[in-house]
Amino acid sequence: MFEALSDKLSGVFDRLRTRGALSETDVGEALREVRLALLDADVALPVVRDFIAKVRERALSTEVLGSVTPGQQIVKIVNDVMVAELGGEGAVPLNLNAAAPIPMLMVGLQGSGKTTTAGKIALRLKERVRKRVLLASLDTQRPAAQLQLAQLGERAGVPSLPIVAGQTPVQIALRAMETGRREGFDVVILDTAGRLSIDEALMEEVKAIRTATNPAETLLVVDAMTGQDAVNTARAFHEALGITGIVLTRMDGDARGGAALSMRAVTGAPIKLMGLGEKLDALEEFHPERVAGRILGMGDIVGLVEKAGETIDQDEAEKLAAKMARGKFDLEDLAAQLRQIGRMGSLSGILGMLPGMGKVKAQLDDAKLDPKILKRQEAIISSMTPKERRAPDIIKASRKKRIASGSGTTVQDVNKLLKQFDDMSAMMKRMNKLGQKGLMRHGLSALLPKGMAQGNRPPGRGF
User: Of 119, 257, 319, 429, which sits 20 to 30 A from 217 (CA to CA)?
Assistant: First the structure.
């Protein structure tokens, strides 16, 4: 998501940063390019006009034009305006300040990911805030919709309302709330039916459910891949229901990203959550400042640290760090490291969260890096005997053939993995030999292989 927009804006800003001083003409030309980039990303036209007007007003101030680094000043202005358009600093949490059981109404068109999102929110509330959640499907239109939600609930370890044939959506909603009160649930998630398009019957049904249950949250689930159609959907639902929050699904896709930039401006409702995949735990809070940072190539270090904290086994990481500090590292450790990285998501996604890594990420994409490489390497290590993992030096031609055959890979793949391991081991030995003082004295160049450390710099100097 946002890759095309990010690439275009980065190009504009790179040109601005190289200028020593800026004239009004320079600013005007840059903003024209920003305007075209936003329109191409499917941002709603009124939102683009408002965005450009706000940036222009601040960018043409004498303070910016007379600045030593006017290009950087304008990048900051664009960032500040973008954060404001996306909803301001900080995520807006789900409203849990109501008497239990708290009703949460899920609305949206068919195919937007509404039912899956209901399961994701249930899991999130159960695991993160220790709430007892009841799932209830009010979808009597789509075959097996109620069964689908029950299966999602089972995977999340969250109970779902038993199915009673012949009941209307309003009757199911009232039964869900009564069950929630009687059985001591904290939250009841009501998953309504969708339609292929907005129609009067859909809106009347959802209005009746809302009147009967008085939900603390009316969450609109929208597929970010649908672009401008998502904005139109949000506007229609908000006008009819007064939605309290938006959940954008498929934010891990390759859509243009304009929907996210338009939602807040069009509805006034905050984007509260975003779906980043099919897994039940692939749901994150929407932080406007972090999303803006990723769009403008500034990265999302806080998000990366949080993701690492959620996925990395602390004890395992500490044991591995201790072995590395002693200069001890074998293929079992490498396999553990690969599993840790795999749990954090794709390499492309991780790079997208690092500042200034847009070009590197683009190069990796151009090189068509195989996203299954980590799993392949893990399979190769799994096909080795415990002795081979502890002492890779014994792996010669016949063993390589056996390992390649057992892991469904080639001997070349096995050789690449062993070379990667040798390079890592050599670096760790150098780190262990130098110690902390040696590293500080010689710099990072001391860790590079011989022949690379000198480069074009003066001898004896670190990086």
Answer: 257
